[in-house]
Amino acid sequence: MLNYFLKGNVTVVTELLKGGTYRSIDAKNEVGLTAIHLAASLGNHVILKLLVQGGGNVNIKDDADLTALHVIHIRISFAYSITDLICSSIYSTPVSTITPTASNCCWNIKQVLRFDIV
């Protein structure tokens, strides 16, 4: 089942959740990750929403003591750092100092990473 979540197969996930075929929505893999952890780490908000609506527990911790919210925070922090590095090399200034312009993709990305979490 976790494989379908990794691949983002919405149709299969929907059918498994709807039909009650899946024995445990909160099952863990070998490192304690649930399907919710995996969907969060991949940024797959469609699968994540299906899992939460299907009764998945967002408070389960993996073997590293992280919940899905921790995973999302780490993912966004990493993406912001990479964006800052790339934009800084393009504009020779940190992304935090870049101001909005119609053609400034770095500023737009900064806004998405800051506000559009899931």
Which helices and strands, and how do they pair?
Elements: H1 2-7, H2 10-19, H3 35-42, H4 45-53, H5 68-91, H6 105-115
Helix pairs in contact: 2-4, 3-4, 3-5, 5-6
Written overview of the protein:
With 118 residues, the protein is mostly helical. It folds into two domains: 2-53, no CATH class; 68-115, no CATH class. It is 58% helix and 0% strand. The protein is built from six helices and no strands. It has helices at residues 2-7, 10-19, 35-42, 45-53, 68-91, 105-115. α2 packs parallel to α4 (45-53), α3 (35-42) runs antiparallel to α4 (45-53) and α5 packs antiparallel against α6 (105-115). The mean pLDDT is 76.
Summarize the structure.
The chain is mainly α and 118 residues long. The protein folds into 2 domains: 2-53, no CATH class; 68-115, no CATH class. Helices cover 58% and strands 0% of the residues.
Number of strand segments: 0
Q: Can you tell me the residue ranges where pLDDT is under 50 for at least 5 consecutive residues?
A: none
Structural Rg: 17 Å
Helix fraction? 55-70%
Could you spell the SSE succession in H and E letters? Answer: HHHHHH
Number of domains: 2
Overall 3D form? elongated
Total of DSSP H or I helical runs spanning 4+ residues? 6
Mean pLDDT: 76
Q: Structural class of the secondary elements?
A: mainly alpha
Strand content range: under 5%
Largest sheet: none
Q: Separation of termini?
A: 22 Å
